[in-house]
From TrEMBL:
It comes from Phaethon lepturus. This is Mitochondrial import inner membrane translocase subunit TIM23. Keywords: Membrane, Mitochondrion, Mitochondrion inner membrane, Protein transport, Translocation, Transmembrane, Transmembrane helix, Transport. It comes from the Eukaryota. PANTHER family: MITOCHONDRIAL IMPORT INNER MEMBRANE TRANSLOCASE SUBUNIT TIM23, TIM23. The lineage of its organism: Eukaryota, Metazoa, Chordata, Craniata, Vertebrata. GO terms for cellular component: TIM23 mitochondrial import inner membrane translocase complex.
Length: 139
């Protein structure tokens, strides 16, 4: 067989057959190849809530152990630590989730208003979220 450049002497195959110039997945008609800001908003909000809950729980554990360090290991101490973990976890999840919601909402609104997807939308959404969060007296 002339004109062929096999991959190896044991595999007599034309490498041109192995080149894939098309995407490896099928998209519905009219769908974008990348996810839009609105689709990513759900992932962002959920991820921030879960991250906030985890960080808050760790902070609650730290605070609970610190506040009860003079107590002996007992049921009341365990309950107090658990209350602190739960309270801090919920507080942090709420805070981070709210921030993610604001950021995502601003991002979607700015993108739809401008009609463009670029870094300016992200910068503007982050700036507006920070300004609104700071204006409520939070540090």
């Amino acid at each position: 067989v002339t004109g062929m450049s096999p991959l190896s002497p044991y595999l007599n195959l034309d490498p041109r057959y192995l080149v894939q110039d098309t995407d490896e997945f099928i998209l519905p008609t009219g769908a974008n190849k990348t996810r839009g800001r609105f689709e990513l908003a759900f992932f962002t909000i959920g991820g921030c809530c879960m991250t906030g809950a985890a960080l808050g729980a760790l902070n609650g554990l730290r605070l609970g152990l610190k506040e009860t360090q003079n107590m002996a290991w007992s049921k009341p101490r365990n309950v107090q630590i658990l209350n602190m973990v739960t309270r801090q976890g919920a507080l942090w999840a709420n805070t981070l989730g709210s921030l993610a919601l604001l950021y995502s909402a601003f991002g979607v609104i700015i993108e739809k208003t401008r009609g463009a997807e670029d870094d300016l939308n992200t910068i503007a959404a982050g700036t507006l979220t920070g300004m609104l969060y700071k204006s409520t007296g939070r540090v």
